[in-house]
Every structure is written in structure tokens, then in C-alpha cells.
Amino acid sequence: MKCFFVLLSMLFLQSCATTSSNTYLMTDNTYKTVARGTDKSDTVNKTVDVATNLCKKNNQVPAFMNDQVEYQGTMDEGTKKTLRQVSKGTALTGLGLGILSRPAGSIATSLGLVGLFVTDDEDYVAEVRYVCK
């Protein structure tokens, strides 16, 4: 049972989308926030959250001028999405099987975690330009 919770927590941590960001003050007094992430919507949301929090410090809100999102992965975007979904399902199924049959559950869980690891690159890049008003 202890093994089940260890695997479940590993799966939870592995399946969380990661997003990193940087904000730059441009010469025309606008801001540019660039975020990289494993999930498209999380990456876009990160740029908006960063802009909102930055402007909120001065009791302002961001006025967005432009934005763009680009997929820069080495595998096809559709293939990556499918592989991530299948890997999550396989890992969860493996956890369930592990209760009934340790070898089958361990194999399925391992395959699922490998799939999640392979698709965990920060392939999405989102960029927004804005001013705080």
C-alpha cells in the first residue's frame, strides 16, 4: 500500500504542467512577458497572471497590445498531446492493477511514467506585450 501512494505522488508531480516566465521592461515603457511550458493553455495563462500581478502592484491593470503562442517541440504537436493523455491513463491504470497484480501494475505504471517523462519538455512559448494602466 505504501508503494501505491509513492507511485501516485510521483504521477501527480510528473503530470503537473511546468511553466517558467521572464518579464522585460522595453524601451518604449511597455512590458514583455515570455513564458515556456508543457501545456499550451497553462503557458498562456502564466503570461496573463504575471502581467496582472505586475500591474496590480501599482493598482493598475494590464492593457494587452499583442500576444503570440508558438509550439517549438521536436515531435508533432498532436502526437505529443495524444502520448501525454495515453501515458496518464496507462499510469493510472497501472496503479489500479498494482492492487490486484503487482507485476502487471508495475509495468503499466512504469510505461505511463516513461511516456509522461518523454513529453514533459517546455515546448510552448507564449509572449505578451502590454502596458499597465
Notes on the protein architecture:
By secondary structure, the chain is an alpha+beta fold. It has four helices and four strands, in the order αββαβααβ. It has a four-stranded antiparallel beta sheet with strand order 1-2-4-3, with helices on one face. Helix 1 (2-15) runs antiparallel to helix 3 (77-100) and helix 3 runs antiparallel to helix 4 (102-118). It is elongated and about 45 Å long. The model is unreliable at 1-15, 95-105 and 115-119 (pLDDT under 50).
Which features would summarize this protein structure in a list?
25% strand; 133 residues; 4 strands; 4-stranded antiparallel beta sheet; alpha+beta; 4 helices; single chain
Ordered list of secondary-structure elements with their pairings:
Blueprint: H1 2-15, E1 19-25, E2 31-37, H2 40-56, E3 62-71, H3 77-100, H4 102-118, E4 124-132
Antiparallel strand pairs: 1-2, 2-4, 3-4
Helix pairs in contact: 1-3, 1-4, 3-4
The level of helicity is 40-55%
Across the major sheet, the strand order is 1-2-4-3
Number of helices, counting only DSSP H or I runs of 4 residues or more: 4
Largest sheet: 4 strands, antiparallel
What's the overall geometry? Answer: elongated
- Following the backbone from N to C, one meets helices and strands in this order, namely HEEHEHHE
- CA radius of gyration: 19 Å
Task: State mean pLDDT (0 to 100 scale).
Answer: 74
Strand content: 15-25%
- Low-confidence residue ranges: 1-15, 95-105, 115-119
**Subunit arrangement of the protein:** single chain
Number of strands: 4
The helix/strand class is alpha+beta
Through-space gap between termini: 54 Å
